[in-house]
Design brief:
The complex is a heterodimer of chains A (478) and B (97).
Chain A lengths: L9 H9 L5 H18 L7 E4 L17 E5 L26 H8 L3 E6 L33 H9 L4 E6 L5 H7 L2 E4 L19 E6 L2 H11 L28 E5 L9 H16 L3 E5 L7 H16 L17 H12 L2 H14 L5 H21 L5 E5 L15 H5 L6 H6 L3 E9 L2 E8 L5 H15 L9
Parallel strand pairs in A: 2-3, 2-4, 7-8, 7-9
Antiparallel strand pairs in A: 1-3, 4-6, 5-6, 5-10, 9-11, 10-11
Chain B lengths: L6 H10 L6 H18 L34 H5 L5 E2 L2 E2 L7
Antiparallel strand pairs in B: 1-2
Helix pairs in contact in B: 1-2
The chains are: A alpha/beta (478), B mainly alpha (97).
Chain lengths: 478, 97
């Protein structure tokens, strides 16, 4: 196998396997070697992985749309018999008895499980520094964070340690790390992909999606993941088939730019790349106009009530009884409280406290009730905006990748990373981040959001941008 | 500035959450939660009186399925991940020491 095979996109590699010019087994071994080396290096490497396959799958599935392509999967997806720890020490060594639907569908379509990827603990974080298994490093600059919470997935794809990866997005956890690592990340419409077997963070917001080298790869993975699943009552039948994106132009496309998400707080280098992308959109035939998302500045506040509230309930199951860590104790209540203290990291404890407080007697209406109403307003703003425009564009993150340790002492500063991505999460609408340039040598992400179930159009528009912007991701390759 | 949440409230919430806190973790928790809650309190400025709450963006009603019995996971598979088992069940410390 030529070393060039590792440079192929997933779409191109699948085609090469199908026409016989590339061996699926050899490709798997080559990636396994790379991923295994990073795993062996631990925190001296990028620390992308929490588990790497030690051999080829017994029956390499070269058939199916995914032709045996290796797949990296975020740790929080349950994979039968393979450690699934959601980045937490409380689940160290946990071997689930079943596989998450999103993963099972990709495996059924011919993907091979290559590795599980490092992440912020229970997907709570924007820098991957909250992992119980050590921080992930950004392949563009190892002194910087890869973003989070799907930081291991993003860094692995950017560095070429995996052809593509699966992540999850609750308030930006696919899009923000994709932006900081210079790759593509798609957060689908809420309900498009089953959540069954995803270790839950905030159930009304969590959604699985792909992190890929290009837009066509995102469409290929997404096409195999979508659809109703009887095991997730909130999953929906996608209203149409997912098609391969092909657009090169944006003629007649109406693009909305909200002042609320593109003004103060966006650093100058990010703003310059964003404005260049808007100029390119007009050259491609799009009409760019201002839209109003009046409540978007309050989305972050609402999110940091709703998501911790749901988390405080979802994480109640980690009590030392059925799986994972148990602290030594003489008495039951002490066993619960000590297990949870010892097993959860600082940020997870903080969010459980925040969520429990917001749901507690006397504060429910002031926090949780109000946040749910803000959510209604945020979603309504999008509905009105999409009556005027086809897509809404913002920078994906307010800054480029920041230094490891820079924001760990200030939770609020860390939360502000999600400022541009959280509104779409509250509204349940799809959004994609694609790389749109470099600022001081670090990638900048362009976020494109559309109405619910507009993924085909969204991927097409992203494809047109991708081809016009010609981003060069080679600076991150290991 | 007076923190939004006091040390006593932190201890109360930690009890509700079944979360032990060390003595030296209480005050930092109060400070960090207060900073976040102060930011969140800005939603108190909005007029939301006539706004319906949204708990879920997907409007699925009556997501029913056929009530057909299916086998559960085998008992030994489920118990295999438990920290302690006894007589085919999960073993836990006594509620009363």
């Amino acid at each position: 196998m030529s070393s060039g095979a590792l440079e192929l996109s997933a779409v191109a590699a699948a085609a090469a396997i199908r026409d016989g010019s590339l061996s699926a087994g050899e490709l798997f071994d080559a990636y396994r070697e790379r991923a295994g080396a990073d795993r062996a290096a631990g925190e001296q490497g990028l620390n992308c992985f929490t588990w790497v396959a030690d051999e080829r799958p017994a029956q390499a599935p070269a058939g199916g749309p995914l032709a045996g392509l290796p797949l990296a999967v975020k740790d929080l997806f349950c994979t039968e018999g393979v450690p699934s720890q959601s980045g937490s020490r409380i689940l160290e060594g946990y071997l689930p008895p079943y596989t998450a639907t999103a993963v099972a569908r990709l495996l059924d379509a011919g993907a091979s499980l290559l590795a599980k990827t490092n992440q912020d603990e229970f997907a709570m974080g924007s820098s991957n520094e909250n992992s119980g298994y050590g921080p992930v490093r950004n392949p563009w600059d190892r002194a910087r964070v890869p973003g989070g919470s799907s930081g291991g997935s993003a860094a692995a794809v950017a560095a070429g340690l995996a052809p593509w990866a699966l992540g999850t997005d609750t308030g930006g956890s696919i899009r923000q790390p994709a932006a900081l690592c210079g790759i593509v990340g798609l957060k689908p419409t809420y309900g498009a992909v089953s959540r069954y077997g995803m270790i839950a963070f905030a159930s009304s917001l969590d959604q699985a999606g792909p992190l890929t080298r290009d837009v066509a790869d995102a469409a290929l993975a997404f096409a195999q993941m979508v659809g109703r699943d009887a095991c997730d009552a909130t999953s929906l039948e996608f209203p149409h088939a997912i098609t391969a994106p092909s657009a090169e132009r944006l003629d007649g496309v109406r693009i909305g730019v909200p002042d609320e998400l593109t003004g103060d707080g966006i650093e100058a280098g990010v703003r310059a790349c964003f404005e260049a992308a808007l100029a390119r959109a007009e050259e491609l035939g799009a009409q760019v106009q201002t839209v109003r998302l009046a409540h978007a500045p309050h989305a972050l506040s609402a999110y940091y009530v709703l998501a911790p509230a749901e988390a405080s309930s979802n994480l109640a199951r980690f009590d030392g009884v059925r799986y994972g860590l148990r602290a030594e104790a003489q008495e039951l209540l002490e066993m619960y409280t000590s297990t949870r203290h010892d097993g959860f990291g600082a940020e997870v404890r903080r969010r459980i406290m925040l969520g429990t407080y917001a749901l507690s007697s006397g504060y429910y209406d002031a926090y949780y009730g109000r946040a749910q109403r803000v959510r209604t307003k945020v979603a309504g703003d999008f509905r009105e905006a999409f009556a005027e425009v086809d897509f809404i564009l913002t920078p994906t993150a307010p800054t480029v990748a920041f230094a490891l340790g820079e924001k760990t002492g200030d939770p609020l500063a860390m939360y502000l990373n999600d400022y541009c991505t959280v509104p779409m999460s509250l509204a349940g609408i799809p959004a994609i981040s694609i790389p749109c340039g470099l600022s001081a040598g670090l990638p900048v992400g362009l976020q494109i959001a559309g109405p619910a179930f507009s993924e085909n159009r969204l991927l097409d528009a992203a494809h047109a941008f991708e081809h016009a912007l010609e981003f060069d991701g080679s600076g991150a390759r290991v | 500035m007076t923190p939004v949440i006091s040390n006593d409230e932190v201890l109360h919430v930690a009890r509700l959450a079944r979360l032990a806190l060390r003595e030296d973790e209480i005050e930092p928790m109060a400070r960090e939660l207060s900073a976040v809650l102060e930011h969140i309190a800005r939603i108190g400025e909005l007029d939301l009186d006539d706004v319906e709450p949204t708990s879920h963006v997907v409007e699925v009603t009556g997501a029913l399925r056929a009530d057909e019995p299916r086998p559960s996971l085998p008992r030994d598979v489920v118990l295999s991940q438990a920290p302690a088992v006894s007589d085919g069940g999960f073993l836990v410390p006594s509620p009363q020491a």
